[in-house]
Structure formats: C-alpha cells, structure tokens
Amino acid sequence: MTPITEVEGRRLALSNLEKVLYPATGFTKGEALHYCATVADALLPHLRDRPVSFLRYPDGPGGQVFFTKNVPPGTPGWVTTAEVPRMEGPARMVLVQDLASLMWAANLVAEFHTPQWTIGTPGIADRLVLDLDPGAPATVVECCEVALWLRGRLGEDGIEAYAKTSGAKGLHLLAPVTPTPSEDVSAYAKGLAVEAERAMPGRVTHRMTKNLRPGKVFVDFSQNAARKTTATPYTLRARPEPTVSTPVTWDEVASCTRASQLAFLAPDVVPRLERYGDLLAPLFDAGRAAALP
C-alpha cells in the first residue's frame, strides 16, 4: 500500500520508499525524499519561478534515464504550471514553488534542471552560468584552476562569480546579472570561454568537439541560451552514488588538489548548510547583479 502523507495541507502518495536508488551506497528513495525535505529551505529559492525540466531515473542511475520537460501525466491540480515559449511551440511546464510541490517532484525520482531566467521574463536572464567540464585525465582539480582564472576575469568586468560542483565531474560558475536577453549573455559567455582558451591553450577548450577535449577543461557557455537548462543547486544527480550539485567556497576551490575534496554526497550537504548557509544566496541579491559590458 502506497503511504499517504500530508505536506502543507496537501495529500501526497509517496511510493516505493525502500527502493534502493544508488546501489553503491544503498541509498534509498525514502532517503532521497528525506534529503529534499531537509534542504528545502536552500533548494526552493533556486527552483521558484523557474520552469523545471526533470531528468528522471525511477529505477536508479543504472535503469532508464529520460528527460521530462512537459507537465508529467498525473500531476496534481495544485502543482503550479505555466506555459513556456519554445522554438517548436509553447509547452506547459512545472514550477516547483513550495515544499508540497518539491516533495511531489522528488517522488518522481529526478534531477532538477532550470534555465537562467524566470517565468515572468522568459528569455531574459538574471544570471550567467559557465559549466566547466573536464575531459579525462583532467578532473575537477583542473576545473578549479580554470574557475579561478574566470573568477578574476569576470571581476575585471565588475561581475561577482560563485561556484558549485556539478554533482558529476566538474564545476559550475554562476553570477547574478541585471536582466539581459539570453542571447547577449550567451555571446558574452562565449567571449569569456574563448579568452580562457587563449590564456590557457593547453588546458582549456571552448569547443564541444570530443577529440579536442581529452586532458582539457571544456568551458561550456551554451547553457546561457534561453532554451537550455543547468542542474539546479542542491539537486541530487543520477550517478552511481547520491552526489549533489553543491555550492563551494572559493577557498575550497583554490585549495583543491584531489577530486575527492569536491565530491559531496547527500549526507554531506546539511552539515555544510549549517556551517555556511546557502553560499549561493547572493544570486538573489539585486544589489550584487552586474550589467554586462
């Protein structure tokens, strides 16, 4: 029998709580739901008002993995949805606005991915993102070196950057910007990636071409496009272990000498929140948002 629980006055059917989603650690679906509830105060602000794409893995990362962008069948009527413009025509997508919606979404077993704009101003970005993806044998250690260079370069333009792990292999840099068309943010981000490649030609590539990437850090600027999304801060990832896209300090980035130093699992995140709070909270401070040059 599927357990029914009440969250903020909403009745939720939470299924298969004992199912092991991450065989490497025995981490269950129930533990994943508990994680989302525990970090909700930090996670929800990064989801709120942003249409969510779900990368679903209902049987764990070793099972079927698929993207869901449209409102999933069976979505309760009380879950907020909104029409989102797309090149191929408008779509209706989910907005995770509150704890009840978060727990409903977590029950789908999914990564959360969000765009750099909010539903009130589609295609007008309020943040810039750079995805640093290492090509083996490079690791997050090399990403940290590139991240520090990019932080300095952004600082020259008056833009303050913040870092988080991708929850996979690399790092994401995020910066609050004054509302700017996504295509302009993309163009600026591409320029940064090209500059980084020129400054560190043996360590950086701005091109996605696979044969250019071994041993280098790919600075992916494309996630600034209006149609693209990035793993939301604090989301669990579909990896062998319950890794989390986790905000990190610049001191942690500067001192990283082993990939394991910037690999965080779900049980690691609450102690970090207790110690640091949300390191990405400045993204919501309009006073920190910078205009692109």
TrEMBL record:
Keyword Hydrolase: no
Keywords (A to Z) from UniProt: Ligase
Domain DNA ligase D polymerase positions: 28-279
Pfam families noted in UniProt: LigD_Prim-Pol
InterPro entries assigned: LigD_pol_dom (IPR014145), MtLigD_Pol-like (IPR033649), NHEJ_LigD (IPR052171)
Single Gene Ontology MF annotation: ligase activity
UniProt xrefs under NCBIfam families: ligD_pol
Protein name as it appears in the record: Non-homologous end-joining DNA ligase
Gene name of this polypeptide: ligD_1
